[in-house]
Amino acid sequence: MKGLYLLISPRFLGFRNQLVRSQNGKRKRIILMSGLGLAFCAGMFAVSCRVLIYFQSAEMIGDVLARHLLSMIILTFFSLLVFSHIITALSNLYLSGDLELCHSIPVDVEELFVSRAFFTVMDSSWMLIIFGLPVFMAYAYVYRPGPGFYFTVLHMNLAMVIIAAGIGILLTMILVHIFPAQRTRDIIMLLTVLMMGALYLLFRFMRPERLVDPEAFFTIAQYLNALKAPQSPYLPTQWITETVWGSLIGSRGGILFGVALTWTTAAALVVINVWVARAVYFEGFSKSQEAKKRRTGGGRVLDLFAKFITKLFGGDLGAVISKDIRTFFRDNTQWSQLLLLIALVVVYVYNFTVLPLDKSPIRLDFLQNILAFLNMGLAGFVLAAVSARFVFTAISAEGEAYWIIRSSPLSLKRYLWGKYFSFLLPMLVLAEILITLTNHLLEVSRFMMLLSSGTMFFMVFGIVALGIGYGALYPNFTCQNVAQVASGFGGVLFMIVSSLFIGMIIVLEAGPVYVLFISNVRGTPVTIYHWTLITLSFLAAFLINMVAIFWPMKMGLKALREYE
Amino acid sequence: MDMIKISDLTKVYKGLRAVDKINLKVGKGMVFGFLGPNGAGKTTTIKMMAGVLAPTEGQIIINGTNLAREPSKVKRWVGFIPDRPFVYEKLSGLEFLRFIAGLYGLDNSPSLRKKISELLDIFELSHWQQELVGSYSHGMKQRLVMCAALLHGPKVLIVDEPMVGLDPRGARLVKDMFRDQARMGTTIFMSTHSLQVAEEVCNEVAIIQEGKIIAEGTGDGLRRQAGVDGNLENIFLKLTEGKRIAHERSLSSN
User: Fold this and answer.
1) Per-residue pLDDT for A240 more than 90?
2) A18-22, B15-19, B77-81: which has the minimum mean pLDDT?
């Protein structure tokens, strides 16, 4: 046990030191991130309460829906927990830098395994608190259960985490036993992305908005019968749902059996994991240090592309951009995210094909104008999200090899603008596809089509500059997985600033368009006063766009020059 | 003419003076050894010379040009080999060298291809040139970075701990390469922990301690300065001893 304590202690000491010794800037980051986390929790709580109160207003079926929702939430959490444990178990058990030291010291392999499994649980489960707590508290707020509910939620969630960890870690050990850890990581990353994309598409194509459509009520009544049927009785999530629901409504029947089933499963999985670890963990760790991918892929196609890029950008920048493209397409964790992007675009466009415009009580042309504006905002937000993942991380993607750029004759200004222009073209294409396709489905007027595509065209210049600039302001050259950089402080700040930028541009354009629309409907001419306002609005939008392009690039360049 | 001239170079990290007003001159074709205990300021100085780190004060003149004023021009004359060879793992060795050639503005000409091939041969990496760098060992990555640093024919080679991670054969290769380069007129500025390497390869050395140059000159000059006979190790220990003992005393008195 002493060995176990010693193996776990560096994590706690590191965490304590980070808290105690963090400087002012870092503390501000922690405060901002905590504030955002709390705001998210509050939002989740409010939305969950609203949904549950809405369910309760429906007699007969309210409780059935609430219970079904609870079972869906628990099943989703459980699935996410299992996947999250597989991914973090890979790095904690097989790929972490400190493992060589840990395996060389005189501790039992069980102790080492348990300590790493403990880290895995800590790393994978904290999100559950942020996402789960507000939902369970919303149930408590609406149903007003006794204190037993809170205790049940606490220990059943703990059991759920242990079961998910047990399954996730066990699967990881089996996978690494079959494949080397490096390949397993690639396979799992790819599977995760495919699964997320498939789930996202599936959920959207099920058209959940039909649930609020009264005309579809007959089919819902049939659907409710299916809802009342339980999930598989062998699923731990079913036992957890039954137990939590029972304690929520004050029913005692079957609760103890559910608790016993859940906790004995959790305990059994712990024992099985330790047994399996004793048999295969060290062997897997040993294998994980072998066999990194050796062969290059797609050489000829990439060579041709590199030649084209070099002609376009010149030798030095061409070399950087070609290197970025090669790296991107050879890293499974990178290119696979394009699949998610495609799913996002497909669903975004699909949403516009199912909009019931003809059923709206509002004038169609007016509604089309409003939706076109809303569409600009949403498409802008989609572009900002895509930029957060791909553009914002472009500087950090250099990783620890950044010294090569810094010590080369390529000036940082040219480097930064080169990165900017290399992302500009694909982002412009994406933006124009999104906006023209959706506007076409909305059947908007020619004027709105021109205005939307023009606005999006210019906004992309600002969004990409914000991405590159903030990426340079908050680079992370030491992160193992560059996709994680986007979820850090700089990435969140970039999303906030770019959302504000998009919002400002749209608000500034909404006034003039409203004036023009009204004058068109009434058949009255636009006054000089209104023309002045329209000109000023567009001028302000143009100026904001210019600031969004040059200010972050300037700040980013300064930050990179001073980076140590 | 001095190929490297450093004047009052200072670097302050959050109140700590890592490098404190150092002055150095290195002539053309010299191999200059930069010695010092751990944390003395060697890597910080080297990084400033390579243009990776901005100095707090002072200036670095290379081949008569100020690095701070014309960084791109100076960097074209410099080859930098850091102590840890972080490179792009998803490129093959050959692609990495072509990438470096592009950064230094070298055309993809037959002469470049010949040079790449020669360097890969010299550093015994020809067999691995199509493999991803991620699969290379530490020593192989170090040798690849050396190829990259020599690709554009630098006038000045700045090297941080060149022998770390190299096997005896690799170490011998590097020492020979330094001598050859110096003979051809390249100036080499090299930090090292290995006093044996410094003794074998360097024409002159400087010893840095707590950010300050405490001794500088040829082996004989340093012997006179330290007042001891024998090899560089004795001189080094003698020159750095006073401060070390003072440091130990202050610790033990607490």
Assistant:
1) yes
2) A18-22
Residue of A69, A37, A80, A239 lying closest to A155 (CA atoms): A239
Q: What's the CATH number of domain B2-253, 3.30.470.10, 3.40.50.300, 1.20.1250.20, 3.40.30.10? A: 3.40.50.300
ipTM: 0.79
Q: Are A36 and A492 in contact (CB under 8 A)?
A: yes
Is the residue at A23 inside a domain? no
Name which residue leads in pLDDT, A96 or B189.
Answer: B189
* Shared-domain flag, residues A231 and A302: no
Strands B204-209 and B31-35: parallel
pLDDT in tens, B105-130: 888 788 899 999 999 999 889 998 88
Q: Looking at chain B, which residue has its C-alpha nearest residue A331? A: B90
Question: Does one domain contain both A320 and A381?
Answer: no
In the block, which residue shows the tokens 């380069």? B181
**Do A79 and A213 sit in the same domain of this protein?**
yes
Q: How far apart are CA A282 and CA A288, in angstroms?
A: 10
pLDDT digits (tens, 9 = 90+) for A472-524: 999 988 876 777 788 788 888 898 899 999 999 988 988 888 888 778 777 78
Cβ distance A316 to B82 less than 8 Å, yes or no, reads: no
CA of B146 to nearest chain A CA: how many angstroms apart? 12
Domain extent, residue A313, equals: 295-330
Contact B91 A323 (CB under 8 A): yes
Q: How does DSSP assign A293-352, residue by residue?
A: --B--SHHHHHHHHHHHHHHH-HHHHHHHHHHHHHHHH-HHHHTHHHHHHHHHHHHHHHH
Number of CB pairs, chain A paired with chain B, less than 8 A apart: 101
Q: Which of B82, B88, B105 sits opposite A315 (nearest CB)?
A: B105
Partner residue opposite A403 with nearest CB, options B76, B82, B98: B82
